[in-house]
Design goal:
It is found in: Cytoplasm. It holds the Pfam family Pribosyltran. This is adenine phosphoribosyltransferase. There is one protein chain. By secondary structure, this protein is α/β, with parallel strands linked by helices. The protein has one domain: Rossmann fold. Helices cover 29% and strands 27% of the residues. The strands form two sheets. The protein has a seven-stranded mixed β-sheet with strand order 5-6-4-3-7-8-9, with helices on both faces. It has a two-stranded antiparallel ribbon with strand order 1-2. It is globular and about 45 Å long.
Length: 190
């Protein structure tokens, strides 16, 4: 699909065809959504689909997870007319932070940080990332928000895989993703 083409009928997830498979090996995610972000209508429809389940919900701020979650998170924040908070990998913020260790989708141990002055008790935060594969990264973000007194208003990602960690998140929080039910098994079995 070229970057100018818009299908005549646009059902949920039509833009998933814009994603490209991994050609660089096992240290990378199996699919790359960055081409989807280059497509104006694809990006708009993706963000609309992510936000649809939260229509009418109280959301005070949107937080995106380093780094690709910044794209969708900032787009969601702009759409909702809310502020945007960057949740960063350790060592990138030059202010007072709270830190949370986690294991990412590749099994590597990492640390995530959040500025301590951005979340006040009761602040309702929509967490956004590009992908929830094992759930480790999103769970670390949830723990940071909640430790600082924030409330996780929801979790949104292009795909939430049916992994143990993905199920843990979906059982406890309102979630949204873009993969139609009929395609979910393909995404879970990559």
């Amino acid at each position: 699909m070229d970057l100018c083409h818009v299908p005549a009928t646009r059902e949920k997830g039509w833009y998933l065809a814009l994603m490209a498979p991994n050609v660089k090996g096992p240290n990378y995610a199996w699919l790359d959504p960055s081409r989807l972000y280059c497509h104006p209508q694809g990006l708009q429809d993706c963000v609309a689909d992510l936000l649809q389940p939260f229509q009418g919900d109280a959301i005070d701020m949107v937080a995106g997870i380093d780094a690709m979650g910044f794209i969708l998170g900032a787009a969601a924040a702009a759409t909702l007319r809310k502020g945007f908070l960057a949740i960063r990998k350790a060592g990138h913020l030059c202010v007072q932070t709270a830190a949370q260790p986690y294991r990412d989708y590749s099994g590597r141990q990492k640390v995530m940080e959040l500025r301590t002055d951005a979340i006040s008790p009761g602040l309702r935060v929509l967490l956004v990332d590009q992908w929830v594969e094992t759930g480790g990264t999103m769970r670390a973000a949830i723990e940071l928000v909640e430790r600082l007194g924030g409330v996780v208003a929801g979790v949104a990602a292009i795909c939430m895989e049916n992994s143990e960690g993905g199920r843990w998140i979906q059982e406890r929080y309102k979630c949204s993703h873009c993969v139609p039910a009929r395609l979910q098994p393909h995404f879970d079995q990559h």
